[in-house]
């Protein structure tokens, strides 16, 4: 994998990954508490 010295893409991809994980978790929680959803 890339080291810290190649730093343009890696922090951006890391932030995108964290935001995607948080969005998926929040969406799953919201769908979990809505009625008439299979989640």
UniProtKB/TrEMBL annotation:
Alphabetic keyword roster: Membrane, Transmembrane, Transmembrane helix
Ranges annotated as spanning the membrane: 12-34
Name of the protein in question: Uncharacterized protein
Organism: Prochlorococcus marinus (strain SARG / CCMP1375 / SS120)
């Amino acid at each position: 994998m890339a080291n810290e010295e190649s730093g343009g893409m890696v922090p951006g991809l890391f932030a995108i990954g964290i935001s995607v994980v948080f969005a998926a978790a929040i969406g799953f929680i919201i769908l979990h508490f809505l009625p008439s959803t299979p989640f």
